[in-house]
Amino acid sequence: MIADLRSDTVTRPTPAMLDAMWSAPVGDDVFGDDPTVKELEQFCANLMGMDAAIFCPSGTMTNQIGVRLHLKPFEEVICYRGSHVYLNEGGGIAGNSSASVRPLEAADGILNPAMIEANINPDDPHYARTALVSLENTVNRAGGSYYTLEQVAAISTNSRRLGLRMHLDGARLFNALVETGESARQYGSHFDSISICLSKGLGAPVGSVLLCRKELEHAARRSRKAFGGGMRQAGYLAAAGLFALKNNVSRLKEDHQRARLLGETLAGLGIVKQVLPVRTNIVIFELEASVPVAPMLKWLEEHGVRAIGFGHQTIRLVTHLDFNDDMLQHTTDTLKKLSNR
Ligand SMILES: Cc1ncc(COP(=O)(O)O)c(C=O)c1O
């Protein structure tokens, strides 16, 4: 048995999802005539309470287009120092937007209005002009921690009062929403752009959607073209995304429950120094200083558990649609064996 916990991106489409893909009506979306892409975009705009939605190949693209909508060259975006948009998108903000980043340290990766306000640059030629706040929900590098709508609203209200725009990397937003019980629709009013991923916990093979206000849509579609993200018969992929949004949201709680059980097992192992609180589907743990990460990952791989290193002495496990209770049992047994070697 192989339990692949490297990411929630490793899932394969189920037969039901494949059926939906096969039977999707398609057209050439670069000419604007793929009905299934249009349906997905309309569905997402309604779901998130935003005017416009643009289907893109990846979450990196939706983030990069999103921040570029708000940043001019020489301007700055404030975000958590572990944000994907800053740390894991190949320096895209520098390259695509010619802008700089103010990365903030924050407990649990959760920013607040005061720390944002304290990091807005003065209107002085020595400094980049602060133009944007980018939040991530859930926060991948902080172990899947999440914002409540109340926290988001406080940040958004204060940031907008100070003249900043708001972008959300909602790659795993639905993981947050199933925990808080809040509705996606309320998110729209707090952001100028939102990226959601269909190919993570929701289980679609490809695709992310960028949501924005109507007046930003034309610029966003221009950027998508320039980034090479215009797709032709993309309705086959959009159909998988629609299926995922309609069928795979509430079950995310199962992933969270399995992640919590993994966290509990890890906390009891001698080789583990600490486990970050498990809030959603991400489990990040640190090994004791005497236990090197690379041989541990290799041993786990040889025993059917795949994980990734996630920084100094640290390993990440992510639960998902294709990780079931048998795999959970196999993983906990294997982790215990590893610790007792
Ligand atoms: C928080 C977060 N944002 C954005 C992305 C980018 O998504 P993609 O891999 O589709 O480019 C990821 C990918 O893992 C992510 O974890």
Write the layout of secondary structure elements.
Layout: E1 3-4, H1 15-22, H2 35-48, E2 52-56, H3 59-70, E3 75-80, H4 84-87, H5 92-97, E4 100-104, H6 113-117, E5 129-136, H7 149-161, E6 165-170, H8 173-180, E7 193-197, E8 208-212, H9 214-226, H10 235-247, H11 252-267, E9 272-275, E10 282-287, H12 293-302, E11 305-306, E12 308-309, E13 314-318, H13 325-340
Parallel strand pairs: 1-11, 3-4, 3-5, 5-6, 6-7
Antiparallel strand pairs: 2-8, 7-8, 9-10, 10-13, 12-13
Helix pairs in contact: 1-10, 2-10, 3-9, 11-13
The protein binds pyridoxal-5'-phosphate.
Pyridoxal-5'-phosphate (PLP) binds at residues 58-60, 63, 84, 136, 140, 169, 171, 197, 199, 208.
Please describe the structure with a list of short key phrases separated by commas or semicolons:
single chain; about 350 residues; alpha/beta; Aspartate Aminotransferase, domain 2; Aspartate Aminotransferase, domain 1; 2 domains; 7-stranded mixed sheet; 4-stranded antiparallel sheet; 13 helices; about 40% helix; globular; binds pyridoxal-5'-phosphate
Q: What's the total helix number?
A: 13
Shape: globular
Estimate nothing, just give the exact number of structural domains: 2
Biggest β-sheet: strands ordered side by side in the sheet: 2-8-7-6-5-3-4
List the secondary-structure elements in sequence, H or E. Answer: EHHEHEHHEHEHEHEEHHHEEHEEEH
Using only CA atoms, what is the Rg? 20 Å
Helix content: 40-55%
Low-confidence stretches: none
Q: Gap between N and C termini, in Å?
A: 20 Å
Ligands: pyridoxal-5'-phosphate
CATH superfamily of the largest domain: Type I PLP-dependent aspartate aminotransferase-like (Major domain)
The class by helix and strand makeup works out as: alpha/beta
Topology, number of strands:
13
- Strand content is 15-25%
CATH topology of the largest domain: Aspartate Aminotransferase, domain 2
Q: Tell me about the largest β-sheet.
A: 7 strands, mixed
CATH architecture label of the largest domain? 3-Layer(aba) Sandwich
Overall mean pLDDT stands at 97
Under the CATH scheme, which class of the largest domain? Alpha Beta
